[in-house]
């Protein structure tokens, strides 16, 4: 690859966006730990962390410092290399996943440059997310196996079995969505919902399945059997301490973040919000198109984050509300309920599209959404 | 047939992914190194022994585990491949129309037959 | 085509039939299905339009069920049909997975049929895999028996290795010819040296790799080494399946491939390789078989040598009709004889728990029928007149002679002279050695089994006495 | 749709794909021939299959002929079936001899 | 049709024998073989004008492998007829001889003998190369089982040796036939393995000599020609008496017949290349057989080696390629068949009475066994080729032929008569006359059934000896035709 591309890229706005996305996901991960406690406290009607800083807002930083300064521990008979590699892998994959998520439409700069509020737009974004996220389970596996501890091993195996079981149903649910959208690019999916109905309307069942699977994939309660302290002490991270432990925790929260983002993009219109074209038209009446477009874009980004935060909250809400499954129940749910449901969903979707839906594909907004096109989209 | 939009991507377009990968790697490495340097190191025989709720750990930790897990994995492989077959179909669903739909119904029929078979075979009976 | 559908559907149905409490219905059910398929094929024989290579194509011409396919389908279905009764041991043992075994056999049969009716390399590949993967399972079907496990593993590793090589060959050839369709591939291959000389090395490497894969699949030397172990370790019935159906499908399928795709002047490139493989195969098969003390292992080596004989037809592919007929005749005779020999071995093994030569001692006294059937099959395998094996061998030889491979023919004859030595050993054991203590009791044989044995022997002798009846299907 | 594919791929010359696939394939073959652990042999076989997939995909892209990619799909499916069977066999053996070293399998002489 | 009947009858009988036991089996077997004999004799009248007949008659031809141009083509000319007659004449006697033994599973034994008869007759009447090869092997299988199952204690290795020898030979023959068969199609003609098609072949001398070697290997092993004989004595010794009779009396003639019918006329030039060393080997065989025979202690082995020596003479005579030589060979085939069967039978009779075949242990048996002595003497003299016995005619003609071919060889070959006289008479003198042995008093004379075997043989000895014309006329036209073909 020629380096001119590299250099020209590094000094472009796009690289800024990447940095932003990266930082945001880390930030959200950090503060999720805080949020988790606050939500827990709220749901259990008690006071959460409130010492470090106002409302304990500095708590995460304190945690970080603590994690860094803790002794790192290697259990006897552990495979050191893999022991370290496990959490690293988990974290890396988690951080990678957010690359293709469209956090907003384009920003138009004065010099006519167009900046996508998305690290990178690839036509197979959805597959990318899947691939990277499902890599994450290797981190758990490796870590659990490497720590030479029965609990860890069991946790790891559970994590793997659970992950694969629910990935099936998840993929199937996704296929139904694909039949509606006809593309794998997250950005296009979002743009398709830019005007008109969100996919949740077409895919209620699919969303439910997807959501359940997302819980399972991120090992959140009620599916947190890989790390359920009541049975397995700490599950796969029983033997972990200091920042390695921290990486596992972060990875989990980042996955939650990504899952929320994906869900909101796929089913809840991504960075689109009701009445955006009205606003656009209103603004263009007084201001320049450039300004109008950017305002709409920024608002869209904000809405997207709103949706994401809601889903993160939803994750925590469920965690502190629902009890944990038994393992065989978990498996049975995944295999004998979600899987057939997903297939049913596919068949229903297909039948619906064929018999009621419009035959030609949804409007293909594959080209870079420059303001003019956006307007056409919006006005239609 | 091919999973591609009319936009012609150049390999350079995938550069951001590499960059993000680099960032992630950097962060991870950083945290690892720092925690390694900063943290105290006081080893002892007992402390290093793997955790078993305080009692002596017995036997090899990496014991063979229930074959059910292997079965699950194998089944996943099988069914996931079927799912792979569905992706291109789903993307081109409208182009294929009724023909594709019927074909896929057959396909799923066979899939469900196998599914029913394994359920009946007791793959998910974790009790025994 | 109907046979393929019928077999696969019944295979599925059979799986669910397995959930019934008693699995005694399975064997009759499967045999019934096979009989029906056999009948369908036999009825179809006089439909003249099937006579050429590609009649009535299916799936956009990827699969054609022509006379060629029909003839070999008949051979294989007949083989399996006559082989099944010897699997009754499973029924008696109340084996929980019986239904699976039968279904897998049906599925692998489907694969075999695809291998002889394909018209597109993709279908060939699918057929091979359907067949092989099923066979991996069957080889290991005796779960508690370590030998069976081991043979399964070896068969699996070697088989998938071969698949990889075959596929790489296919990929390279695809790169060179831009098609998977057999006929187009043939055209492209013949045109290539002129059209795109840059591609020819890729093509040739591809062909060589495919040959290697083929060698593995039909266990031709030097890619035969897995065969004895696998054949010895696998349950005898499935060994018989492997050594009959797999070989027939393999040789027939690859004959089609080589003739249509790589025939003509291209063959000048790979024929020497194939010939060398043939010579080596015959040598190793026969010499190896002489050294054995275990009847089953001897049959394994002999099956290697028979692969060698069948390769004579591959080498002589330019006189097409002769070779086709020869392959048909030989594979039929060979399959029937092999079924008999393995069937008898299976029965003896069930009672005496061993399958070395001495376990056959005095069989003539205790079970005259078994001994006689075994004798006939041995003579047929040895190619002695009065049995089908003779005319099979004769046709192969005359095909090779017609192509002018006199040296090969003489070599093959010398080899079969060696073969006679080891084929006589079971006969000697049965007729001329006294029964040892422990082998004195007669081997239990059900009515069905003896009936099938009689039918098989009848067919073998009929082929040997009135070969005209089996003549001219592929003319 | 087909004619658009080549520009995508042709930024990398075909030979690179061929050499890459050949290298992968050779690695797989060597692994099969030299390694002694059944699982690793098995993985090497899978490696060979994937080398084939790469090659087929590359060719089909350069030839603007989808058949190659269809073939890849089938190879994937078959490979999955092989994985299923193969793992089953290996697990079965492991449960019998607590090992997957093919050298230990000497009940039958090679 | 009659020919086919000759082929089918024994098989049918053999199959039927599967269902009957005991005396019924014997009756059936004997009856079938006698019926066969009757058919064979009837065949003589069937083709009248047989004496002028050159082309095979009583033909039958139907497509066997149409696409390959192989037909099931059978028929008889004088040469074939004589051998068919010999077979049909000897088999009943052999069966009769076997009745004295109580083999286990006798009906299987008889069935195999009859099955063997089919094979032998098939070989003699085949007019298509592959039919010939087919029956050639078919004749081999039953004799293998006869010798292997009912033979002496060293039977297994011996029969294996015999089988392998023969089969390797016949496979080489098959190679030769396949080549000829292929050559019939070179000039675009439809390939055919018919005898006439082979006769019409025109091959280079080089090809011919190769084909000759391939095919002659089989025949030489069967005859056997000297260096290839090593299977013979063991097999004769180990096989049960009836099997030995079949082997030496009939089967051995297959080789000679094959040479006459399937070798000489087809590849004459190729043969003429090799005649020289074959003659030498044959003569060596004569001397070798005789000398070894002299040194034998065991009656059966002695007979075996004497037969080797006689066969050597036949081969030598045959390869002179003169009408005398060929006619002599034909007559000698009959005579030798009769004699050797008789000798083996007598050896069997004595063994059954005394329980030994060692010449040293026997002696002075004549006193109580006049009939045995007479029959023995007659057949012995026949073998020695005393004038007026059957042996004389053949050997005389053969020796004349060899002498014409090469006086020195003739002279050496002439030794066979002297040697023969020496060892045979010495044996007779020691076994029958000589000092008394423990058996001299106890031994009993021939029984009725044994007489039933020996009397026909004795009569035949004199018939051939006194009226050889009967048979020579039958074979003459065929032989002349052969000569024409050979000298083309």
TrEMBL record, chain A:
It is found in: Cell membrane; Membrane. One of its GO terms (cellular component) is plasma membrane. Keywords: Cell membrane, Membrane, NAD, Oxidoreductase, Quinone, Translocase, Transmembrane, Transmembrane helix, Ubiquinone. It comes from the Bacteria. The chain crosses the membrane at residues 6-29, 82-104, 124-147, 168-190, 196-216, 247-270, 290-318, 330-356. InterPro entries: NADH_UbQ_OxRdtase_su1/FPO, NADH_UbQ_OxRdtase_su1_CS. It is a multi-pass membrane protein. It catalyses: a quinone + NADH + 5 H(+)(in) = a quinol + NAD(+) + 4 H(+)(out). Its main location: membrane. NDH-1 is composed of 14 different subunits. Subunits NuoA, H, J, K, L, M, N constitute the membrane sector of the complex. Belongs to the complex I subunit 1 family. This is NADH-quinone oxidoreductase subunit H. The gene is nuoH.
TrEMBL record, chain B:
Its main location: membrane. Its EC number is 7.1.1.-. InterPro entries: NAD(P)H_OxRDtase_bac/plastid, NADH_UbQ/plastoQ_OxRdtase_su3, NDAH_ubi_oxred_su3_sf. It is found in: Cell membrane; Membrane. Pfam families: Oxidored_q4. GO terms for cellular component: NADH dehydrogenase complex; plasma membrane. It comes from the Bacteria. It is a multi-pass membrane protein. It catalyses: a quinone + NADH + 5 H(+)(in) = a quinol + NAD(+) + 4 H(+)(out). Belongs to the complex I subunit 3 family. PANTHER family: NADH-QUINONE OXIDOREDUCTASE SUBUNIT A, NADH-UBIQUINONE OXIDOREDUCTASE CHAIN 3. NDH-1 is composed of 14 different subunits. Subunits NuoA, H, J, K, L, M, N constitute the membrane sector of the complex. This is NADH-quinone oxidoreductase subunit A. It comes from Hymenobacter gummosus. The gene is nuoA.
TrEMBL record, chain D:
The chain crosses the membrane at residues 14-33, 40-64, 70-94. GO terms for biological process: ATP synthesis coupled electron transport. Its main location: membrane. GO terms for molecular function: NADH dehydrogenase (quinone) (non-electrogenic) activity; quinone binding. Its EC number is 7.1.1.-. One of its GO terms (cellular component) is plasma membrane. It catalyses: a quinone + NADH + 5 H(+)(in) = a quinol + NAD(+) + 4 H(+)(out). Keywords: Cell membrane, Membrane, NAD, Oxidoreductase, Quinone, Translocase, Transmembrane, Transmembrane helix, Transport. It is found in: Cell membrane; Membrane. The keyword Transmembrane applies. It is a multi-pass membrane protein. NDH-1 shuttles electrons from NADH, via FMN and iron-sulfur (Fe-S) centers, to quinones in the respiratory chain. The immediate electron acceptor for the enzyme in this species is believed to be a menaquinone. Couples the redox reaction to proton translocation (for every two electrons transferred, four hydrogen ions are translocated across the cytoplasmic membrane), and thus conserves the redox energy in a proton gradient. HAMAP family: NDH1_NuoK (MF_01456). NCBIfam families: PRK05715.1-2, PRK05715.1-3, PRK05715.1-5. Belongs to the complex I subunit 4L family. NDH-1 is composed of 14 different subunits. Subunits NuoA, H, J, K, L, M, N constitute the membrane sector of the complex. This is NADH-quinone oxidoreductase subunit K. The lineage of its organism: Bacteria, Pseudomonadati, Bacteroidota, Cytophagia, Cytophagales.
TrEMBL record, chain E:
Residues 67-121 form the NADH:ubiquinone oxidoreductase chain 4 N-terminal domain. PANTHER family: NADH-UBIQUINONE OXIDOREDUCTASE CHAIN 4 (PTHR43507). One of its GO terms (molecular function) is ubiquinone binding. The keyword Transmembrane applies. It comes from Hymenobacter gummosus. GO terms for biological process: ATP synthesis coupled electron transport; electron transport coupled proton transport. It is found in: Endomembrane system; Membrane. Keywords: Membrane, NAD, Translocase, Transmembrane, Transmembrane helix. The chain crosses the membrane at residues 70-96, 108-127, 133-150, 162-182, 210-229, 241-263, 275-295, 302-321, 333-350, 371-393, 405-425, 446-466. InterPro entries: NADH4_N (IPR000260), NADH_Q_OxRdtase_chainM/4 (IPR010227), NADH_UbQ_OxRdtase (IPR003918), ND/Mrp_TM (IPR001750). It is a multi-pass membrane protein. Belongs to the complex I subunit 4 family. It holds the Pfam family Oxidored_q5_N. The keyword Membrane applies. Residues 127-416 form the NADH:quinone oxidoreductase/Mrp antiporter transmembrane domain. GO terms for cellular component: endomembrane system; membrane. It comes from the Bacteria. This is NADH-quinone oxidoreductase subunit M.
